[in-house]
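Shipment paperwork, digital attachment
Item: protein structure file
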Amino acid sequence: MLLAIAPQAVLPRRATNSTDSLRHRGAVRAPVGAPRIVRKRSRHMSVQVQAEEGAAAATTFVPVMRPEDLPKGVRKEVRVEGKSVLLFWYRNQIYAIESRSPAEGAYSEGFIRAKFTQDFGIECPSTGTLFSLKDGSIQSWYPNNPVLRMLTPQDTCRKLEIYPVKLEQDAISVDVSGSVKANTSQMTKGGSDTSLENNNVYGLEPRMYVEGADTEESTVGKVASVGVSVLSVAALIAVGVAVVTYISR
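Attachment content:
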């Protein structure tokens, strides 16, 4: 007698825990506070900061004119962030420098008609000093005046400021963010104080005053004025006494 044995149904293996089930599916999720997620956030933040810094650095160039406004052989003086900048072509490249020489005063003509040399130099119109167009260094200090070369050492003059230039299809842009030169358009006191280092031997301009403004006279000046007045009165009295004595005789 044959007995029929019914086949038993094979039940699927039950996962022991939720992690085994997820591993079986190949999609294990890391906990919320896992370091891997934190690293991703920090990396995202660093990339965002770098992008912001790059955008800030890209905005330091200021458009000043169109390329067709600066043909070769022409020099143009413009104002960029309150600074006077001179633009010109030299050996198929546009240069931007400060418009006035560091070796001369604030009332000088500047480099608008200065001479160029063959070794990337520009000559100061007043002193004859040569500055390099590559890095602004002094190539020759007072070459035509040995007396002033001795009276004013070379280390009393700073370098010529050279500004980065970006030439695009629709604009010429200049970056003056690295400038250390003060704004020379402000009113000066004249004399040697017309230069940034207060050593300008060509600055013989008289002291300037604004109409309606209070003039500040030093104590020494006041004492000198009073002394001259007293001496003048004393001299007049002495002359009068001498004349009266002469006549009475």
